Amino acid sequence: MTTCKAYGACEAHADLTPMHIERRALRADDVAIAIDYCGICHSDAHAVNNDWGSTVYPCVPGHEIVGHVTAVGPQVTRHKVGDRVAVGCMVDSCQDCPSCDDGHEQNCSKGLTATYNGKDRHTGALTHGGYSEGIVVREKFVLRVPDALDMKFAGPLLCAGITVWTPLRRHGVGKGSKVAVIGLGGLGHMAVKLAVALGAEVTVITTSAGKADDARALGAADVLLSKDPKAMQAAANRFDFILDTIPTKHNVNPYLMLLGRDGVLVLVGALEPLEPIHGALLVMNNRSISGSLIGGLPATQELLDFCAEHNVLPNCEMVDVRDINSAFQRMQANDVKYRFVIDMASLRETAVG
Amino acid sequence: MTTCKAYGACEAHADLTPMHIERRALRADDVAIAIDYCGICHSDAHAVNNDWGSTVYPCVPGHEIVGHVTAVGPQVTRHKVGDRVAVGCMVDSCQDCPSCDDGHEQNCSKGLTATYNGKDRHTGALTHGGYSEGIVVREKFVLRVPDALDMKFAGPLLCAGITVWTPLRRHGVGKGSKVAVIGLGGLGHMAVKLAVALGAEVTVITTSAGKADDARALGAADVLLSKDPKAMQAAANRFDFILDTIPTKHNVNPYLMLLGRDGVLVLVGALEPLEPIHGALLVMNNRSISGSLIGGLPATQELLDFCAEHNVLPNCEMVDVRDINSAFQRMQANDVKYRFVIDMASLRETAVG
Fold it and tell me: For residues A107 and A330, what is the distance between their CA atoms, to the nearest angstrom?
């Protein structure tokens, strides 16, 4: 066991505070990682606040982890000390079901092991995430960060990035695709950049006219205001693919109308019951509504490699770990363009009582 | 112009009565067809009763038309006098949009011309359907009935059959696919037969245990009672593809749960707003809900050829045209296994007005 400095919460709705956590001794197929950067995800705040009723405390969040290898177990073959590596939303899965066999570990039939607030498959111990100096992770769940990818910006690819990359790839978005992205937050801004890099013509759909310039700066060819009924009507049947990043219950019918024949709208945010969908909107143009959950290890590696090759990087604001509580507040007020990343050097400099 | 005997309704909620209708003189690319058989579809009753508020009277329904060619216009090349032919739900489209170019005329961007209660694209005249001696149809919308296909049974393929064939083909149902069909009516029974013929393992989902024997007789490997919560729970994540033929508003969440990773549920019946769908059910297994509307001309010809080759035929009850009103009543009471077909010889023997 190794003791690490970390930031976490001991109870719901309390500030994150500095603490010590234990990391397990290396198993044969484990990799020990010194964390250099960790992105801040909305779900970190949900977990800390126990919004989903499933949080076990102390909760050390963080699943957009970037660092370098400091030690490896004797059976590790894919990583060596000094390698630039990354860890996303999961640190283990059964490795013995069709989804794991197909590289869709996020859909493991026995359930994935979450990077934090999960249960170690061997010991049942609570997992702790990336708001810490270090982490120990099963080799298979450790990704390579290509040399051409700036470590500072790699973190948000591990959750925000892969969440939008998986459906873009599954639905064949590429040159000539007409794509719309609903919402311009952490996920939405990555979706715009990635779809543009894949060759698509991208429109941002937003409620706020004030986001038009930002959308175009990210590469969007057009902006559609969802509160403008005439503009929405004029865009009927226009898109092949719509990525819907709205994180709460909403009415998808006005967006479904924008899909052309065989078009697909993919939900990545809303987990609640949606407002009633009109069956006719699906039947009339063979439209679909689908969902997507993060992505598997092969797709995540593909994303990191793609972003290195095409120089696609999230827009990040770097924060000191000591400012994490105000960063949470700003994130929840949508006051960030578009993702906070903790520079973990600031944790190393912090004395933990 | 030619005068034909027909059965139709002159006002909503009135019995169908014998009448005379006019068929247009042949245009250069027209085919004149003597109708031998016509299937009775639920939408015929909806149209006659003006359930959708769009019926123009007199309404002569019928869009599952089978007959033989009696005359052709001078530019017709694909059909000749005596040919066995069929006409489905549409008799024209713009032929100048991406959907028409791709053989998805049902999604014509300018709107298809319906076989009945439609408007002729040249004259604006009301179209009349197949409950009649004859019909005149643009060559392109006239399908071939293969010699190996019994004319008596071909009619229901033109609407019930193609409605389920299109999504089965679009979603790649084939050998090894795990398919469920919800509802065992005209559409459902065709879906079972076609999916079995494509090589799928088919389960019928029904509310009534009494349908189990019928489902197995049609080729279903299993029957799942939707009112049995334990059986539904045990079937979680089991299917690749679910065809949902329920014709009215319903709760799809219990069925979505039955889909495995990347599974798709396709609506072909319900056109109303559905009960609220849980976003999480879509996100968690990358599930989709989609819709589908009849099918294009190439797919319909493919279906007729497939049914001839594999001897897949709808189960039909032949009726005399003079019994049409009682057939409508029985159909609306679900008292038919599984589709009525009018033997049009009975109309030829009938004196009209």
Answer: 32
pLDDT, tens digit, 9 for 90 and up, residues B264-323: 999 998 888 999 999 999 999 999 999 999 999 999 999 999 999 999 999 999 999 999
A65 Cβ under 8 Å from any chain B Cβ: no
Is pLDDT above 80 for A24?
Answer: yes
B304 touches B86 (CB < 8 A): yes
pLDDT of residue A270: 86
For residue B279, give the nearest of A264, A267, A284 by CB distance. Answer: A267
B289/A contact by beta carbon, under 8 A: yes
| CA pair distance B286, A102, nearest whole angstrom | 14
What SS3 class is residue B222? strand
Give dist(CA B42, CA B44) in Å, integer. 5
Domains (range + CATH), chain B = 2-158+315-348 (3.90.180.10), 161-291 (3.40.50.720)
Contact (CB, 8 A) for A200 and A221 = no
Closest by Cβ to A283, choosing from B249, B267, B283: B267
Asked whether B153 and B146 are in contact (CB, 8 A), the reply is no
Kind of pairing between the strands at B222-225 and A222-225? unpaired
ipTM passes above 0.90: yes
- Position A352 scores a pLDDT of 78
Structure tokens at A119: 């249960």
Q: Rounded CA gap, A318 and A339, in Å?
A: 9
Q: Contact at 8 Å (CB) between B265 and B244?
A: yes
- The answer to whether residues B299 and B162 touch, using CB atoms and an 8 Å cutoff, is yes
Helix (H/G/I), strand (E/B), else coil: A167: helix
